[in-house]
Amino acid sequence: MGAPPLASWPWDNLGTYKYLLCAPLVAKAVGGRAWERGSPDHWCFLLLLLFVLRAATYHHWNAFSGMLFLNRRRRVIVRGGVDFEQIDKEWHWDNFLILQLWLAAVAMYAFPSLRRLALWDARGAAVALLLHVAATEPLFYLLHRALHRGRLFSDYHSLHHSSKILQPSTAGFATPLEILAISGLMAAPVAAACAAGLGSAGLLFGYTLAFDFLRAMGHCNVEVFPGWLLETVPAARYLIGTPTYHTVHHTDKDCNFCLFMPLFDLLGGTLNDKSWELQKKNSAGSDDIPGFVFLAHLVDVMASMHSRTVSRSQASLPCRATPAAVLLWPVAFASMLVMWAWSETFPVYSYRLRGGLFDTWVVPRYGFHYLLPFAKDGINRQIEAAILRADRMGVKVINLAALNKNEALNGGGTLFVARHPGLRVRVVHGNTLTAAVILREIPEGTAEVFLTGATSKLGRAIALYLCRKRVRVMMLTASEERFQKIQDEAPPEAREYLVRVTKYQSAQHCKTWIAGKWLSPREQRWAPAGTRFHQFVVPPVLRFRRDCTYGKLAAMRLPDDVQGLGVCEYTLERGVVHACHAGGVVHFLEGYEGHEVGAIDVDRIDVVWEAALRHGLRPAC
């Protein structure tokens, strides 16, 4: 048997090119200067404007749903975040907007009087409200109950219920058959008002956007109504469905079928009495304490838009410059200034692993801030406040990311441990695993490497590890004192394998470069053809040489049983995190005691690597 009729969208194969289906209306609006009030094509402009406003309504509810710092305690379903599978499945959630745009355009052609609506008529609004309560609500209730039976559920409505965690975009995630039916119920009140000669553009916009607003709110997975409201005004329970109320329908599919008004569930005997108790509990808030926090920072203005609050879909892909991101750059720049002046560390996303909640928090500072001498104290205050907050919450491990553990900034975290010796939260930098990942990328039998950033925490550990393996390490550094200090740490029989160099020319015959400091194209020219560039520098080295190969930043893939992960970490692939992040995860899973700050213990590099593999983490390459 073939697929049931109207169970899939006819433009599924178009991907994002589906928006070209709107092109005829856009062309007509532009050609007829439809934005001018007197234009005969003004209706076309209004429909396109309504299309944009509707999309914006769902987008802003999606953004609100993703704001952990604002709504975490009032989440209805707490399972980490929305995972990649659900994001991919709901990627084209807005198909219904395109269909309804064309249904409205057909109606405008079929009934020319609709093209000349008044701006506003209060009588029409009253008629629409009456028809919504008397017709749309009960008919939707009956339709929804029918969709939960037999083939209608298995062939159609089960798609909507396949989403694990409700999101505003889930409201539009349905089959064409369901959308056509809902469109008819949605249009009925406005159509009746227009048929009575009481229609208006204000009614068309107001009713449609209110409908979308309530649908998105009901699926947002955040309880937005205070518990006292429904207790103080008991009748309100039957007039408006809360996000908790609709979530109960998705967990217990035989109840709470109404559109917006639970009154019809009461009349139909399908109202779940536990809905109000759950609503009160969710509105009061509940603490879901993470066991692990990865304390990151923003890389640059463009990367700051790689966030669920900007675009859930784009955040689920590796960070890259898109046309939309370029257009939004001025807004993101203004946001950067605001955060610099007033913001504090905040959570951005979370996932679950082995029963624990793993958070990523962001220090509201960008990469260039860490280069400003006068910003150093402010950044450290932000990091310190985050550590103390995590300690008060009962977090087990807080993992400093990238520049937040810079040696010149805070000694790799030693500053905070020294200031607060009674910390219960374990402060770690995760660089032990980063060193292990980089070292595993170097082929067996390599006799010589060239190392930049040689006296940094990672550079020191890599140099000491390799010299023990009898690999000659050319350490690029201008400081004889720092080089000598590292050489003195090496076993006496291995010290001869550490060689200090001061110029890139010294490596012109070495085909293994390890970059701990950014390499300009001019500096890369000194590498011979066939060189492999390994790196632990942010931002990554530009791939300037076509006759050489470039390794990616040290990273590891999280275990397969990770749940609720739906955000890519900077430019990395799905499910992959930076090695320092993975190092913190291993620290948590292993239950290591004490902090991991300051210098890397070279003797533990192999131990941590084996622990990572034992817990199911894998090299990203």
Automatic annotation (TrEMBL):
Q: Where is the Fatty acid hydroxylase domain?
A: 130-270
* Signal peptide as annotated in the record: none
Gene Ontology biological process terms in this record: response to stress
Q: Where are the transmembrane segments?
A: 91-111, 123-143, 321-342
Q: What is its main location?
A: endoplasmic reticulum
Q: Which Enzyme Commission number(s) are on file for it? A: 4.1.99.5
Pfam families reported in the protein's UniProt record: CER1-like_C, FA_hydroxylase
Q: Provide this UniProt record's keywords sorted from A to Z.
A: Endoplasmic reticulum, Lyase, Membrane, NADP, Transmembrane, Transmembrane helix
Membrane topology per the record? Multi-pass membrane protein
What's the catalysed reaction? a long-chain fatty aldehyde + 2 NADPH + O2 + H(+) = a long-chain alkane + formate + 2 NADP(+) + H2O
Q: Which SUPFAM superfamilies match?
A: NAD(P)-binding Rossmann-fold domains
Q: Name one GO cellular component term.
A: endoplasmic reticulum membrane
All copies of domain Very-long-chain aldehyde decarbonylase CER1-like C-terminal, residue ranges: 449-619
- Name the Gene Ontology molecular function terms of this record: aldehyde oxygenase (deformylating) activity
Note the InterPro entries from the entry: CER1-like_C, Fatty_acid_hydroxylase, NAD(P)-bd_dom_sf, Sterol_Desaturase_Related
Give the family, as the similarity comment puts it.
Belongs to the sterol desaturase family.
Q: Which PANTHER family match?
A: STEROL DESATURASE (PTHR11863)
> What name goes with this protein?
aldehyde oxygenase (deformylating)
Query: Native species of this protein?
Result: Urochloa decumbens
Upper lineage ranks? Eukaryota, Viridiplantae, Streptophyta, Embryophyta, Tracheophyta
